[in-house]
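lol forgot to send this yesterday, sorry. struct tokens for the thing we talked abt
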């Protein structure tokens, strides 16, 4: 070894940076492709049941008698719709998208590539294990699976495996982040990689609640008869509390991948730059801090939760709206930079210079517009008095579809329009069809969600109900119901177009005109973000402290006073 090559005495030698090779990229892309494929297949089935439910609500046609004996009840279809769309479609797509982006952002391979394979196999096994009882009508408990309704034990085992698989994805990211940090001790973590890692940490904190509910309450009750034991019994209030520890952060697990793209990718797709990288980092840290201690705003109607805890969670829920307000201003500023670089003028005329001809960009921009209305509805839901007026009405699925069905799903559609051609090496099947798809989804969700908001707010129409067969069906509902059918028509056309585009892009080997690069937005200010925005311990410790403060006393009370008189039952 030459003198120049020898490390100086007393100086710790830094590990050489790992190099992202073509073989690494091939493994990453294969894992990503499997995740995306499963996600799209799940969405195709789940969305179909959504159409069936909407048509039944409007008394157009009740398709379920024609599905016998495969699908026995409306509520079985509702369970499949919720589980496949809200859990399977989102989780698989997110894990695939993140697996694709994170190593490219770090420009180093995943620390343990085999963990990616273990993760996706575990998730698929979990999906199949949970799907069997749902398809055999042994787990018709909706995607919230509230006790005392009790599904077959394999349903809970499948959900557990699905969550464990997503945890493995997250752990692989943490190991990769740590390895990169050792190689680059003085550098700021790239924004995309940091945002992805924060999202997965938030997800693992959030899923602790539902993991405890399944492992210690639901699964023992479901397994007891199998082994010839008496059910230990259920406490519905404790179960609901543990579920909503997870249930609302689940929304942010859906949303933050869209934010990853909106902040870190979209500006590049329209020729702009990230308006403020420090603010973008702050947004993700705030979501880590505030996403979990908000669940009691879903339990305003539960008499067993003292008002003080509902009030605390209401305040924290209002607080978690703050990072979305930051997003509304900073992302739009980033896009305006791109539009003005393309010749945009005036106060608003620059909007016309955005890259509307690119379906990937247009879809995400339309998703952001819909999310404005979804965010406003979220503030209303968090408001105690107003929530009482819309609780358990059709207002809730109207709001729900503006978040996971619009901001999230439409963004994922748009991301797929560059991601799938990148994975396959095949040209996107007709750009004009993709543009038609994102616009029809936009208008479809506008009509559909507006109709459901109206039904809930004006007429107090209940949700989770087979409305078409209800004896209290009111002719006054006719107009908003027809509006919902109009929206469903647009959504059905849009979904059909999306699945056709994905299928033909995958199977038709048309060569790309030019290689597709992952879009990465450069910051407007090249100076690195402040170090406190690249430091984990204050944010992570703060998040854990807030969870313990906001949930600890109430959970202690519920557990010490737990009543298990309620037994699992089938109400379907």
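and heres what i got for the seq, position by position
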């Amino acid at each position: 070894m030459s003198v120049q090559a020898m490390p100086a005495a007393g100086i710790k030698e830094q590990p050489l940076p790992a190099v992202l090779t073509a073989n690494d990229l091939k493994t990453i892309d294969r894992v990503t492709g499997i995740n995306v494929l499963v996600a799209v297949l799940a969405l195709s089935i789940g969305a179909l049941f959504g159409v069936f439910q909407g048509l039944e609500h409007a008394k157009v046609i009740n398709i379920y008698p024609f599905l016998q004996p495969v699908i026995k009840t409306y509520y079985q279809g509702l369970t499949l719709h919720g589980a496949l769309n809200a859990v399977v479609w989102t989780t698989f797509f997110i894990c695939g998208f993140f697996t694709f982006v994170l190593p490219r952002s770090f420009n180093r391979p995943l620390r343990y590539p085999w963990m990616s394979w273990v993760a996706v196999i575990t998730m698929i096994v979990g999906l199949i294990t949970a799907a069997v009882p749902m398809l055999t009508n042994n787990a018709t408990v909706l995607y919230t699976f509230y006790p005392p309704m009790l599904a077959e034990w394999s349903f809970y085992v499948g959900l557990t495996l699905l969550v464990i698989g997503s945890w493995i994805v997250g752990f692989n990211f943490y190991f990769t982040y740590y390895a990169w940090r050792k190689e680059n001790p003085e550098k700021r973590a790239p924004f995309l990689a940091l945002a992805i890692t924060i999202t997965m940490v938030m997800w693992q904190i959030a899923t602790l609640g539902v993991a405890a509910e399944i492992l210690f309450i639901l699964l023992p009750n479901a397994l007891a008869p199998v082994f010839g034991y008496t059910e230990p019994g259920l406490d519905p209030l404790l179960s609901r509390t543990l579920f909503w520890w997870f249930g609302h952060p689940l929304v942010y697990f859906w949303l933050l991948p869209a934010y990853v793209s909106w902040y870190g990718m979209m500006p590049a797709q329209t020729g702009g730059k990230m308006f403020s990288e420090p603010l973008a980092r702050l947004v993700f840290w705030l979501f880590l801090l505030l996403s979990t201690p908000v669940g009691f705003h879903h339990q305003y109607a539960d008499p067993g939760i003292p008002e003080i805890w509902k009030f605390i969670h209401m305040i924290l829920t209002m607080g978690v709206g703050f990072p979305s307000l930051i997003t509304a201003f900073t992302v739009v500023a980033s896009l305006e930079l791109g539009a003005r670089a393309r010749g945009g003028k005036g106060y608003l005329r620059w909007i016309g210079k955005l890259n509307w001809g690119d379906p990937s960009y247009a879809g995400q921009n339309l998703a952001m517009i819909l999310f404005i209305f979804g965010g406003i509805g979220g503030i209303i839901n968090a408001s105690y008095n107003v929530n009482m007026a819309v609780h358990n009405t059709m207002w809730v699925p109207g709001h729900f579809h503006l978040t996971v069905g619009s901001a999230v799903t439409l963004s994922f559609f748009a991301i797929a329009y560059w991601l799938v051609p990148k994975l396959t090496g095949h040209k996107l099947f007709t750009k004009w069809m993709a543009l038609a798809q994102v616009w029809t989804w936009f208008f479809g969700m506008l009509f559909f969600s507006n109709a459901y908001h109206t039904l809930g707010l004006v007429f107090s129409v209940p949700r989770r109900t087979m409305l078409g067969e209800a004896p209290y069906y009111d002719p006054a509902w006719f107009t908003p119901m027809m509006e919902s059918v109009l929206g469903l028509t647009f959504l059905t056309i849009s979904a059909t177009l999306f699945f056709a585009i994905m299928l033909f892009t995958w199977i038709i080997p048309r060569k790309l005109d030019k290689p597709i690069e992952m879009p990465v937005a450069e910051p407007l200010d090249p100076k690195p973000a402040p170090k406190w925005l690249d430091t984990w311990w204050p944010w992570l410790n703060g998040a854990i402290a807030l969870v313990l403060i906001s949930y600890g006393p109430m959970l202690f009370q519920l557990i010490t006073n737990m009543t298990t008189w309620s037994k699992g039952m089938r109400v379907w």
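Confidence is low (pLDDT under 50) at residues 1-11. anyway ping me if u want another try
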